[in-house]
Hints:
The first copy, chain A, is α+β, with helices and mostly antiparallel strands. Helix content of chain A is about 45%, strand content about 15%.
Amino acid sequence: MMMDMQSVADILRSHGFKVTPQRLAVYDALQNTTEHPNAEMLYNMLLPSYPAMSLATVYKTMEIFDQIGLAQVLNIGEDSYRYDARMENHPHVRCNTCGRVDDIMEFEDEAIMEQVAKLSDYKLTGRQLYFYGECPKCQGKKKKYN
Amino acid sequence: MMMDMQSVADILRSHGFKVTPQRLAVYDALQNTTEHPNAEMLYNMLLPSYPAMSLATVYKTMEIFDQIGLAQVLNIGEDSYRYDARMENHPHVRCNTCGRVDDIMEFEDEAIMEQVAKLSDYKLTGRQLYFYGECPKCQGKKKKYN
DNA sequence: TTATTAATGGATAATTACTATCCATTGAGT
DNA sequence: ACTCAATGGATAGTAATTATCCATTAATAA
């Protein structure tokens, strides 16, 4: 179910990439957060344990992870990309108030894909579904304090 | 049904923006294409008739159109934004082979919005649905020549 | 129609996320 | 352990977008 460190190392090696502490650290950080960090957020998360970490390394590492299927890139309409270690294709929802981005797991999208394929005559291979609104926490705040 | 020049002028004025030939020209160009141009494509489309047109003007104009609801911005995962004068929220599909972007009109998305609202507990206000694949034309080419 | 004034267009500089380059260092197979 | 290509970090470069500046223009009032 959950990808562990050992298999991440194997996947890197099997694609001809070296296994380095930095790469394992980046993957570990991404794996252990639900906040869909961008490169700079990852960099700042890693700085305390890896003071020599470079932002360029984060970018290069994420490009590799994207290539070999260890992470996916999100393009939610902000000024920077976010990253997600969950590899099943799933929609995301962003709170317009606080900016948090959440996964929407267990979303059933086969009917959509069929509908779009029929309407477009495209042979579909992928999708990116982004939703926008107000998260439960921000809704609560509004009710209490506004 | 279709937005004409007169009402574009009215909408600009009603939001306190001046009505200028450049703005009408940008809107006209965007209205009369289905290829979802980015700023540079729009600029190049307009150059023949408006040799003095500036790329900065296109950007500024599109920002205004986005604000006042005369166009929407698409973020399809390319390195630049594309624009669409069709204001009903609708999905888009991009051909991975030739890069064209098509509208998917008549897409029924109420069921999706309900499903996502239920799964996320967000109060949803918007969505951006992007699909990727191979367009009919490129499928045909592949079958014939590859 | 003209005068007045604030908005605008175009030129250009600045910003910023991201990518490429360079070289000393390091991981991994021999 | 040895060898060497891959890597990390520093830094420069790229490219889309945004901000600035000022002469010009559109809109309102007279």
